[in-house]
Protein backbone atom coordinates (compact mmCIF):
# COMPACT_ATOMS: atom_id res chain seq x y z
CA UNK A 1 0.00 0.00 0.00
CA UNK A 2 0.93 3.57 -0.51
CA UNK A 3 2.22 5.81 2.25
CA UNK A 4 2.47 9.52 1.50
CA UNK A 5 3.90 12.49 3.32
CA UNK A 6 0.57 14.21 3.83
CA UNK A 7 1.23 17.85 4.67
CA UNK A 8 4.78 17.21 5.77
CA UNK A 9 7.99 18.10 3.94
CA UNK A 10 9.62 14.79 4.75
CA UNK A 11 8.60 11.34 5.95
CA UNK A 12 10.80 11.87 8.97
CA UNK A 13 8.79 14.93 10.01
CA UNK A 14 5.54 13.06 9.46
CA UNK A 15 6.78 10.10 11.47
CA UNK A 16 7.91 12.33 14.34
CA UNK A 17 4.40 13.79 14.44
CA UNK A 18 2.72 10.39 14.38
CA UNK A 19 4.32 9.43 17.67
CA UNK A 20 1.52 10.33 20.12
CA UNK A 21 -0.82 8.10 18.14
CA UNK A 22 1.47 5.12 17.51
CA UNK A 23 2.84 5.11 21.05
CA UNK A 24 -0.75 5.00 22.24
CA UNK A 25 -1.57 2.05 19.95
CA UNK A 26 1.53 0.19 21.01
CA UNK A 27 0.97 0.71 24.72
CA UNK A 28 -2.65 -0.38 24.42
CA UNK A 29 -1.44 -3.73 23.10
CA UNK A 30 0.50 -4.39 26.33
CA UNK A 31 -1.46 -2.44 28.94
CA UNK A 32 -5.07 -2.41 30.04
CA UNK A 33 -5.67 1.27 30.71
CA UNK A 34 -9.13 0.68 32.19
CA UNK A 35 -7.95 -1.91 34.74
CA UNK A 36 -4.59 -0.16 35.23
CA UNK A 37 -2.72 -3.41 34.66
CA UNK A 38 -0.19 -4.95 32.30
CA UNK A 39 -1.62 -7.63 30.04
CA UNK A 40 -0.60 -11.27 30.47
CA UNK A 41 1.43 -12.35 27.45
CA UNK A 42 1.76 -15.76 25.92
CA UNK A 43 5.53 -16.09 26.27
CA UNK A 44 7.80 -19.11 25.73
CA UNK A 45 9.33 -18.49 29.22
CA UNK A 46 8.25 -17.26 32.63
CA UNK A 47 9.83 -14.03 33.84
CA UNK A 48 10.01 -15.37 37.37
CA UNK A 49 12.21 -18.29 36.29
CA UNK A 50 14.71 -16.19 34.34
CA UNK A 51 18.10 -15.19 35.66
CA UNK A 52 19.12 -13.19 32.59
CA UNK A 53 17.85 -11.70 29.37
CA UNK A 54 20.09 -11.27 26.34
CA UNK A 55 18.89 -8.29 24.30
CA UNK A 56 20.50 -7.77 20.89
CA UNK A 57 19.90 -5.33 18.08
CA UNK A 58 21.58 -2.90 15.68
CA UNK A 59 21.59 0.87 15.36
CA UNK A 60 18.68 2.72 16.92
CA UNK A 61 17.09 -0.57 18.01
CA UNK A 62 20.27 -1.32 19.99
CA UNK A 63 19.95 2.02 21.77
CA UNK A 64 16.32 1.24 22.63
CA UNK A 65 17.56 -2.10 24.00
CA UNK A 66 20.17 -0.31 26.10
CA UNK A 67 17.43 1.79 27.68
CA UNK A 68 15.36 -1.38 28.19
CA UNK A 69 18.22 -2.81 30.24
CA UNK A 70 17.80 -0.05 32.85
CA UNK A 71 14.06 -0.76 33.10
CA UNK A 72 14.33 -4.55 33.44
CA UNK A 73 17.09 -4.32 36.00
CA UNK A 74 15.46 -1.57 38.06
CA UNK A 75 11.81 -2.58 37.90
CA UNK A 76 12.08 -6.37 37.70
CA UNK A 77 15.53 -6.94 39.27
CA UNK A 78 16.30 -8.98 36.18
CA UNK A 79 19.86 -8.71 34.77
CA UNK A 80 20.04 -7.83 31.08
CA UNK A 81 22.91 -7.88 28.62
CA UNK A 82 22.22 -5.40 25.85
CA UNK A 83 24.47 -6.16 22.90
CA UNK A 84 25.17 -4.88 19.45
CA UNK A 85 24.07 -7.82 17.32
CA UNK A 86 27.20 -7.81 15.12
CA UNK A 87 29.20 -8.36 18.33
CA UNK A 88 26.78 -10.75 19.99
CA UNK A 89 26.73 -13.15 17.04
CA UNK A 90 30.48 -13.83 17.37
CA UNK A 91 30.91 -13.26 21.10
CA UNK A 92 30.05 -16.81 22.16
CA UNK A 93 28.21 -15.60 25.20
CA UNK A 94 27.42 -18.44 27.61
CA UNK A 95 23.65 -18.69 27.98
CA UNK A 96 22.21 -20.54 30.95
CA UNK A 97 19.02 -22.55 30.53
CA UNK A 98 17.29 -19.87 32.59
CA UNK A 99 18.08 -17.21 29.99
CA UNK A 100 15.79 -15.83 27.35
CA UNK A 101 16.76 -13.80 24.31
CA UNK A 102 14.96 -10.76 22.93
CA UNK A 103 15.74 -9.19 19.56
CA UNK A 104 14.65 -5.69 18.65
CA UNK A 105 14.28 -4.72 15.01
CA UNK A 106 12.12 -2.31 13.08
CA UNK A 107 12.43 -4.18 9.77
CA UNK A 108 12.80 -7.68 11.19
CA UNK A 109 15.37 -8.32 8.43
CA UNK A 110 18.68 -7.00 9.77
CA UNK A 111 21.34 -9.63 8.97
CA UNK A 112 23.35 -9.38 12.19
CA UNK A 113 20.24 -9.43 14.37
CA UNK A 114 18.94 -12.48 12.53
CA UNK A 115 22.31 -14.25 12.90
CA UNK A 116 22.22 -13.52 16.66
CA UNK A 117 18.74 -15.00 16.85
CA UNK A 118 19.98 -18.15 15.12
CA UNK A 119 22.89 -18.41 17.59
CA UNK A 120 20.37 -18.38 20.46
CA UNK A 121 18.25 -20.93 18.62
CA UNK A 122 21.25 -23.28 18.47
CA UNK A 123 21.85 -22.65 22.16
CA UNK A 124 18.28 -23.75 22.78
CA UNK A 125 16.94 -20.76 24.72
CA UNK A 126 13.48 -19.19 24.24
CA UNK A 127 13.34 -16.29 21.80
CA UNK A 128 11.13 -13.21 21.58
CA UNK A 129 11.21 -10.61 18.80
CA UNK A 130 10.17 -6.99 19.19
CA UNK A 131 9.56 -6.10 15.55
CA UNK A 132 7.62 -3.55 13.56
CA UNK A 133 7.15 -5.54 10.37
CA UNK A 134 4.85 -8.48 10.91
CA UNK A 135 5.74 -11.59 8.98
CA UNK A 136 9.38 -10.48 8.68
CA UNK A 137 12.13 -13.11 8.96
CA UNK A 138 13.01 -12.28 12.57
CA UNK A 139 9.32 -12.36 13.52
CA UNK A 140 8.88 -15.75 11.84
CA UNK A 141 11.94 -17.35 13.40
CA UNK A 142 11.19 -16.21 16.96
CA UNK A 143 9.02 -18.18 19.38
CA UNK A 144 6.92 -15.11 20.07
CA UNK A 145 6.48 -11.76 18.33
CA UNK A 146 6.02 -8.69 20.47
CA UNK A 147 4.89 -6.13 17.93
CA UNK A 148 5.58 -2.42 17.85
CA UNK A 149 2.56 -0.81 16.25
CA UNK A 150 4.39 2.10 14.65
CA UNK A 151 3.04 1.51 11.15
CA UNK A 152 5.34 1.71 8.11
CA UNK A 153 8.45 3.78 8.76
CA UNK A 154 9.91 5.25 5.57
CA UNK A 155 12.55 7.72 6.79
CA UNK A 156 15.91 5.95 7.04
CA UNK A 157 16.53 7.54 10.44
CA UNK A 158 14.26 5.70 12.83
CA UNK A 159 11.96 7.84 14.98
CA UNK A 160 8.51 6.42 15.71
CA UNK A 161 9.79 2.83 15.64
CA UNK A 162 12.27 3.80 18.37
CA UNK A 163 9.70 5.29 20.74
CA UNK A 164 7.40 2.31 20.10
CA UNK A 165 10.28 -0.06 20.91
CA UNK A 166 10.74 1.89 24.15
CA UNK A 167 7.01 1.60 24.84
CA UNK A 168 7.14 -2.19 24.44
CA UNK A 169 10.30 -2.56 26.54
CA UNK A 170 8.90 -0.41 29.37
CA UNK A 171 5.61 -2.33 29.37
CA UNK A 172 7.45 -5.66 29.35
CA UNK A 173 9.72 -4.58 32.20
CA UNK A 174 6.69 -3.63 34.31
CA UNK A 175 5.07 -6.96 33.47
CA UNK A 176 8.29 -8.77 34.40
CA UNK A 177 8.33 -6.91 37.73
CA UNK A 178 4.74 -7.88 38.44
CA UNK A 179 5.45 -11.54 37.70
CA UNK A 180 8.68 -11.54 39.70
CA UNK A 181 7.02 -9.84 42.67
CA UNK A 182 9.25 -6.75 42.59
CA UNK A 183 6.27 -4.54 41.65
CA UNK A 184 3.16 -4.55 43.85
CA UNK A 185 -0.32 -4.30 42.30
CA UNK A 186 -0.45 -0.74 43.63
CA UNK A 187 2.86 0.17 41.95
CA UNK A 188 1.70 -1.53 38.77
CA UNK A 189 -1.35 0.74 38.61
CA UNK A 190 0.82 3.83 39.11
CA UNK A 191 3.33 2.76 36.43
CA UNK A 192 0.58 1.88 33.95
CA UNK A 193 -1.02 5.27 34.57
CA UNK A 194 2.34 6.97 34.02
CA UNK A 195 2.91 5.09 30.76
CA UNK A 196 -0.60 5.97 29.62
CA UNK A 197 0.33 9.66 29.92
CA UNK A 198 3.15 9.34 27.36
CA UNK A 199 1.06 10.19 24.25
CA UNK A 200 -0.32 13.36 25.83
CA UNK A 201 3.13 14.59 26.90
CA UNK A 202 4.52 13.68 23.48
CA UNK A 203 1.88 15.95 21.88
CA UNK A 204 2.87 18.78 24.20
CA UNK A 205 6.53 18.40 23.28
CA UNK A 206 5.72 18.53 19.54
CA UNK A 207 4.48 22.08 20.16
CA UNK A 208 8.07 23.13 20.95
CA UNK A 209 8.82 22.77 17.25
CA UNK A 210 9.54 26.42 16.49
CA UNK A 211 11.91 26.80 19.44
CA UNK A 212 13.76 23.62 18.46
CA UNK A 213 13.97 24.82 14.86
CA UNK A 214 15.64 28.02 16.11
CA UNK A 215 18.14 25.98 18.15
CA UNK A 216 18.84 23.88 15.03
CA UNK A 217 19.82 27.02 13.11
CA UNK A 218 22.43 27.62 15.80
CA UNK A 219 23.60 23.98 15.88
CA UNK A 220 24.05 23.86 12.10
CA UNK A 221 27.00 26.29 12.45
CA UNK A 222 29.16 23.68 14.18
CA UNK A 223 31.15 20.69 12.89
CA UNK A 224 31.30 18.66 16.11
CA UNK A 225 28.72 18.10 18.82
CA UNK A 226 28.86 16.17 22.09
CA UNK A 227 25.74 14.70 23.75
CA UNK A 228 25.78 13.85 27.45
CA UNK A 229 23.32 12.06 29.71
CA UNK A 230 23.16 9.75 32.72
CA UNK A 231 21.07 6.68 33.41
CA UNK A 232 18.52 6.08 30.62
CA UNK A 233 19.58 9.41 29.15
CA UNK A 234 23.01 7.96 28.43
CA UNK A 235 21.76 5.65 25.63
CA UNK A 236 19.49 8.51 24.61
CA UNK A 237 22.57 10.76 24.30
CA UNK A 238 24.04 8.15 21.93
CA UNK A 239 20.76 8.06 20.01
CA UNK A 240 20.80 11.87 19.73
CA UNK A 241 24.34 11.76 18.36
CA UNK A 242 23.42 8.94 15.97
CA UNK A 243 20.40 10.84 14.60
CA UNK A 244 22.42 14.04 14.12
CA UNK A 245 25.34 12.40 12.32
CA UNK A 246 23.08 10.20 10.16
CA UNK A 247 21.06 13.00 8.65
CA UNK A 248 23.02 16.26 9.05
CA UNK A 249 26.53 14.74 8.63
CA UNK A 250 27.71 16.78 11.61
CA UNK A 251 30.12 14.71 13.67
CA UNK A 252 28.49 13.86 16.99
CA UNK A 253 29.27 11.63 19.93
CA UNK A 254 27.12 10.51 22.82
CA UNK A 255 28.74 9.90 26.18
CA UNK A 256 27.77 9.02 29.73
CA UNK A 257 28.06 12.38 31.52
CA UNK A 258 30.27 10.82 34.20
CA UNK A 259 32.79 9.85 31.53
CA UNK A 260 33.30 13.47 30.48
CA UNK A 261 36.43 13.81 32.57
CA UNK A 262 37.84 10.55 31.22
CA UNK A 263 38.31 11.81 27.71
CA UNK A 264 35.84 14.03 25.88
CA UNK A 265 36.54 17.03 28.12
CA UNK A 266 39.81 17.39 26.18
CA UNK A 267 37.75 18.34 23.13
CA UNK A 268 35.69 21.04 24.79
CA UNK A 269 36.09 24.56 23.49
CA UNK A 270 33.79 27.21 22.03
CA UNK A 271 33.65 25.26 18.76
CA UNK A 272 32.07 22.12 20.22
CA UNK A 273 28.61 22.59 21.71
CA UNK A 274 27.45 20.10 24.32
CA UNK A 275 23.87 18.91 24.35
CA UNK A 276 22.92 17.79 27.84
CA UNK A 277 19.85 15.62 28.38
CA UNK A 278 18.97 16.06 32.03
CA UNK A 279 15.51 15.90 33.54
CA UNK A 280 15.38 16.87 37.23
CA UNK A 281 15.93 13.36 38.60
CA UNK A 282 17.88 12.00 41.57
CA UNK A 283 21.22 12.42 39.78
CA UNK A 284 20.48 15.81 38.25
CA UNK A 285 23.01 17.57 40.51
CA UNK A 286 25.78 15.31 39.20
CA UNK A 287 24.98 16.37 35.66
CA UNK A 288 24.96 20.02 36.75
CA UNK A 289 28.57 19.52 37.93
CA UNK A 290 29.44 18.16 34.48
CA UNK A 291 27.86 21.21 32.87
CA UNK A 292 29.93 23.46 35.11
CA UNK A 293 33.05 21.62 33.94
CA UNK A 294 32.00 22.26 30.34
CA UNK A 295 31.18 25.93 30.98
CA UNK A 296 34.52 26.49 32.76
CA UNK A 297 36.26 25.48 29.53
CA UNK A 298 34.29 27.83 27.34
CA UNK A 299 31.96 25.07 26.09
CA UNK A 300 28.49 26.07 24.93
CA UNK A 301 25.61 24.13 26.45
CA UNK A 302 22.26 23.24 25.00
CA UNK A 303 20.28 21.91 27.93
CA UNK A 304 17.24 19.70 27.46
CA UNK A 305 15.49 19.50 30.80
CA UNK A 306 12.14 19.95 32.55
CA UNK A 307 10.67 22.89 34.46
CA UNK A 308 12.27 21.87 37.75
CA UNK A 309 15.61 21.27 36.06
CA UNK A 310 15.52 24.69 34.41
CA UNK A 311 14.96 26.28 37.84
CA UNK A 312 17.78 24.35 39.50
CA UNK A 313 20.44 24.38 36.78
CA UNK A 314 23.04 26.83 38.04
CA UNK A 315 24.69 27.27 34.68
CA UNK A 316 24.52 29.68 31.83
CA UNK A 317 23.26 27.59 28.93
CA UNK A 318 23.39 28.88 25.36
CA UNK A 319 19.89 27.40 24.91
CA UNK A 320 17.50 25.63 27.25
CA UNK A 321 14.71 23.46 25.91
CA UNK A 322 12.19 23.06 28.70
CA UNK A 323 9.93 20.01 28.60
CA UNK A 324 7.03 19.38 30.95
CA UNK A 325 7.82 17.57 34.25
CA UNK A 326 6.99 13.97 33.35
CA UNK A 327 6.91 10.71 35.37
CA UNK A 328 10.33 9.04 35.48
CA UNK A 329 9.39 5.90 33.54
CA UNK A 330 8.39 7.84 30.42
CA UNK A 331 11.34 10.26 30.32
CA UNK A 332 13.23 8.28 27.63
CA UNK A 333 10.13 8.26 25.43
CA UNK A 334 9.36 11.95 25.86
CA UNK A 335 12.99 13.15 25.64
CA UNK A 336 13.38 11.26 22.35
CA UNK A 337 11.21 13.86 20.64
CA UNK A 338 13.35 16.99 21.08
CA UNK A 339 16.38 14.87 20.15
CA UNK A 340 14.75 13.77 16.91
CA UNK A 341 13.41 17.25 16.12
CA UNK A 342 16.80 18.83 16.70
CA UNK A 343 18.46 16.40 14.28
CA UNK A 344 15.64 16.84 11.78
CA UNK A 345 15.70 20.63 11.69
CA UNK A 346 19.50 20.74 11.66
CA UNK A 347 19.49 18.51 8.59
CA UNK A 348 16.85 20.72 6.95
CA UNK A 349 19.05 23.77 7.59
CA UNK A 350 22.07 21.90 6.18
CA UNK A 351 20.02 20.99 3.11
CA UNK A 352 20.77 17.26 3.24
CA UNK A 353 18.54 14.47 1.96
CA UNK A 354 16.70 13.93 5.24
CA UNK A 355 14.74 10.81 4.35
CA UNK A 356 17.51 9.12 2.38
CA UNK A 357 20.85 10.16 3.83
CA UNK A 358 23.93 9.23 1.81
CA UNK A 359 25.48 5.79 2.31
CA UNK A 360 22.72 4.53 4.62
CA UNK A 361 20.01 1.93 4.05
CA UNK A 362 16.73 1.54 5.86
CA UNK A 363 17.20 -2.17 6.21
CA UNK A 364 20.65 -3.77 6.27
CA UNK A 365 20.19 -7.35 5.07
CA UNK A 366 23.87 -8.01 4.37
CA UNK A 367 26.59 -8.36 6.93
C1 LIG B 1 19.78 0.64 9.70
C2 LIG B 1 18.79 1.77 9.78
C3 LIG B 1 18.58 2.20 11.25
C4 LIG B 1 18.20 1.01 12.09
C5 LIG B 1 19.15 -0.16 11.94
C6 LIG B 1 18.59 -1.43 12.54
O1 LIG B 1 21.04 1.10 10.08
O2 LIG B 1 19.24 2.87 9.03
O3 LIG B 1 17.57 3.20 11.32
O4 LIG B 1 18.15 1.40 13.45
O5 LIG B 1 19.40 -0.44 10.57
O6 LIG B 1 17.47 -1.79 11.78
P1 LIG B 1 16.28 -2.65 12.30
O7 LIG B 1 15.34 -2.77 11.15
O8 LIG B 1 16.86 -3.99 12.70
O9 LIG B 1 15.68 -1.97 13.48
UniProtKB/TrEMBL annotation:
Give yes or no: UniProt keyword Metal-binding: no
Has keyword Iron? no
Query: Where in the cell is the protein located?
Result: Cytoplasm
GO BP: carbohydrate metabolic process; fructose 6-phosphate metabolic process; protein N-linked glycosylation; UDP-N-acetylglucosamine metabolic process
According to UniProt, the reaction catalysed is: D-fructose 6-phosphate + L-glutamine = D-glucosamine 6-phosphate + L-glutamate
Q: What is its EC number?
A: 2.6.1.16
GO CC, alphabetical: cytosol
Location, primary (coarse class):
cytoplasm
Q: Which UniProt keywords apply?
A: Aminotransferase, Cytoplasm, Glutamine amidotransferase, Repeat, Transferase
Q: Name one GO molecular function term.
A: glutamine-fructose-6-phosphate transaminase (isomerizing) activity
Tell me the ranges covered by the SIS domain, including all copies. 43-182, 215-357
| Class in the EC hierarchy, top level | transferase
Task: Provide the function of this protein.
Answer: Catalyzes the first step in hexosamine metabolism, converting fructose-6P into glucosamine-6P using glutamine as a nitrogen source.
Q: What is the protein's given name?
A: Glutamine--fructose-6-phosphate aminotransferase [isomerizing]
